[in-house]
Amino acid sequence: MMELVEAHESFGGVQEVWRTKSLTLDCDTTIGVYTPPLAKIGQKCPVVFWLSGLTCTEQNFITKAGAQKAASELGLIIVAPDTSPRGEHVPNDDAYDMGQGAGFYLNATQEPWVRNYRMYDYIVNELPALVESHFDAASAVRCISGHSMGGHGALMIALKNPGLFRSASAFSPIVAPSKVPWGQKAFTSYLGDDLSLWAEYDTVELIRAGLNPSLPMLIDQGTRDDFLEEQLQTQRLAEVVGDRPIEIRMQEGYDHSYYFIASFIEDHLKWHAEQMKKPQA
């Protein structure tokens, strides 16, 4: 059952937050959904899925990114799920980079996380089906984007699922989580010590393995991002791009904040809208 939590008119469309029971995550979860004016008159619209970063909920993107105006003009539905399972029965950790708010968009294999922390399956299977059954969403016309941990999730999930998304983009993504402290901590806890399993959730390793070579990707990274050198390491992605349709833009002076996202979100939405107009490969 879908329960409407809040709704706000925005640029002729409506920004809503819905609560629903997720069978995949075994908990209630919230989803931000912006529907453009075209959806109000029953036109099926393409969908942009947005995955947020560490500590975030659906609220960070819908209140700070300023995406509604461009989505209204482009006729895009934007779906922003929470970043992890939540609830009193859901395992948690006192650290900001583990547990609730830090799902890393994978399927955990280790206790105590294995029952609830299945964000990969949720994003790949349950969420698209839910959106297409409850909103005026065009069937199988989707793209995905995200920030930081969510940038990792967006790129990784799109690479692993050819045909599920027409394009993928990211702001400040963790491109090689198996090689940096944030990812190594999360992967050890959620996945154990099997490095081959870590590689299945690492964008750089998936590209090295040849997955989904025709997937268009757009990455924006700020040059003044405090996490660039230690946690994000964009150069690792640049080293494996080869002849893939991947554009990496280093944005001079920008940091890791939502000021950065708000500055370029219109670029990303326009780019995705063009990608979704192209015949699917």
Question: Which stretches are poorly predicted, pLDDT < 50 over at least 5 residues?
Answer: none
What would CATH call the architecture? 3-Layer(aba) Sandwich
Question: Could you tell me the radius of gyration in angstroms?
Answer: 17 Å
The CATH superfamily turns out to be: Alpha/Beta hydrolase fold, catalytic domain
Dominant shape: globular
Characterize the largest beta sheet: strand count, sense, and whether it forms a barrel: 9 strands, mixed
Q: Approximately how much beta-strand content do the residues carry?
A: 15-25%
Strands ordered across the widest β-sheet: 1-2-3-5-4-6-7-8-9
Query: What is the tally of helical segments?
Result: 11
Strand-helix topology:
Layout: E1 2-10, E2 13-22, E3 27-35, H1 37-40, E4 45-51, H2 58-64, H3 68-74, E5 77-81, H4 119-134, E6 137-147, H5 149-160, E7 168-171, H6 181-191, H7 195-199, H8 203-208, E8 217-222, H9 228-232, H10 234-238, E9 246-251, H11 258-277
Parallel strand pairs: 4-5, 4-6, 6-7, 7-8, 8-9
Antiparallel strand pairs: 1-2, 2-3, 3-5
